[in-house]
Amino acid sequence: MGHVALLLAELGAVVLGLGLMARLANRLAISPIPLFLLAGLALGEGGLIPIVTSEEFIEVGAEIGVIFLLLMLGLEYSAGELVAGMRSVAPAGLLDLALNFTPGVAAGLLLGWPVVAALFLGGVTYISSSGVIAKLLNDMGWTGNRETPVVLSLLVFEDLVMAVLLPILGVLALGGTLSGAILAIAIALTVVIAVIAFAYRQGDKIGELIFHTSDEVSLLTVLGLTLLVAGLAEGIGVSAAVGAFLVGISVAGPAVERAQALLSPLRDLFAAVFFVFFGLSTDPADIPGVLLVAVALGLVTAATKVVVGRWASRRNDIGSRGQIRAGLLLIPRGEFSIIIAGLGAGVAGGGELPALAAAYVLLMAVAGPVAVRIQQSRQERAVAVASPE
C-alpha cells in the first residue's frame, strides 16, 4: 500500500474510532475527553496499536485543535462581560486560584521537580473544564438555576487568569535569562490587556468586519484572522492559543452567532484530534508510577473546588443545595489542563508531567459528572420523601 493510501486509511480509522467513542460517551452521558485520551494512549508508542504514518498530521491537527478551543471559548463572552464578571466574582476567583493552583505546585515540589515544572502542574490542577461543565449544565437541566451564573462567572475568571497564565508559562518553558523572561512576560501582559481594552470599546466594529451573509465568506474570514493572529502571537511569545482567545473575545454582534455555528463542527473534530495527540505523546507505562499522586491530587482539588463553589454561592444568597451543586460542577478538569500540560511537556525536570496530567484529567473528567449525578439523585430522593403521594 502506498504512503498516501496508508495515511488516508490510518486517519480514517482514527477518526471513525473517535466517532464511535463519542457515540458511547453520549450514551453514557459523560464527556468524551477521557475516551479520547485513552485512544491516544492505545495508539501511541507503547500502546496496543501504535500508529506510524499519520502521527505528524495528527500533531498539526492538535495545534489547530488548541486554537479552535480557545477561539470558541473567547466567542462565548464579550470583553464587557469578562470585565463585569471579573469584578463581581473576584474574591471567589482569587480563592479558587489559591486553593487549586497551590496543591499542584506543592505536589510538584514534593516530587522533586524544578519550580517551573511545578508551576505547570499548578496550572493543570487549577482550571476547571468549561466544556465538560457546559455539557453537565445542559444535560442536568440546570442552566436556569440560581447558582449557574456564579459557576459561569468563576469559569470566566479562570479563563482570564489562563489568558495571562499561558504566556507566562510559555516564557518559562522556553527558558532564557531572567531579564529576558521578565521582558517577554511584560510584553505578553501588555498585549492581552490592550486587546481586551480595545475589544471592550470596538468589539461591534470588529464583528461587522467579519460578519457576512455568505457562510463561506464568514468562515474564511474568521478562520484566516484567527490563524494569522495566532501565528503573530506565537511570534512575540504570547502563545497561539491566547492569540485565538483574544480574537474570540474581540468579536461582538451578529458575527458571534454566525461564527459559533460555522466553527463548532471544526472545533469538535480538531479538539478530538488534540486529545488523541496528547495521549499519543504519553507513554502508558509511565501512568502507573504517577497514579497514586494523581488520585491524591484529585481528592484534594475536588474538595477545594467544592469549597470555592459553596463559598461563592453563599455570597450570592443561594441555598445549601445550590451551593453543593455549584461546588460539584467545578470538579471536572479537561481541555485546558491538557493544554497547559502540553506546553510544559518539554520543561526541564517535568518528564512525568504528561503522564500525571493524563491520569489526573481522566480521573477528574469522570469523577465530576459522576458526583453531580449522585447529588442529583440524592436531591430527587429527598424531594420524593418530603412530598409523598
What does this structure look like?
The structure is a single chain. By secondary structure, this protein is mostly helical. It has helices at about 5-30, 35-45, 55-75, 80-110, 115-125, 130-140, 150-175, 180-210, 215-235, 240-250, 255-280, 285-315, 320-330, 335-345, 355-385. Helix 5 packs antiparallel against helix 14, helix 13 (about 320-330) packs antiparallel against helix 15 (about 355-385) and helix 14 (about 335-345) runs antiparallel to helix 15 (about 355-385).
Topology diagram in text:
Layout (H helix, E strand, L loop, with lengths): L2 H26 L4 H11 L11 H21 L3 H32 L4 H12 L3 H11 L7 H27 L3 H33 L4 H21 L4 H11 L3 H27 L6 H29 L4 H10 L5 H9 L9 H34 L3
Helix pairs in contact: 2-11, 2-15, 3-10, 3-11, 4-5, 4-7, 4-12, 5-7, 5-14, 6-15, 7-8, 7-10, 8-10, 9-10, 9-11, 12-13, 12-15, 13-15, 14-15
Oligomer, anyone? single chain
Q: How would a textbook summarize the main sheet?
A: none
Structural class: mainly alpha
Q: Which range best describes the helical content: under 10%, 10-25%, 25-40%, 40-55%, 55-70% or over 70%?
A: over 70%
Strand percent estimate: under 5%
N-to-C order of helices and strands: HHHHHHHHHHHHHHH
Rg (CA only):
21 Å
| pLDDT averaged residue by residue | 78
Shape: globular
Could you give the count of β-strands? 0
Number of helices: 15
* Straight-line N-to-C gap: 68 Å
Poorly predicted sequence stretches spanning 5 or more consecutive residues: none
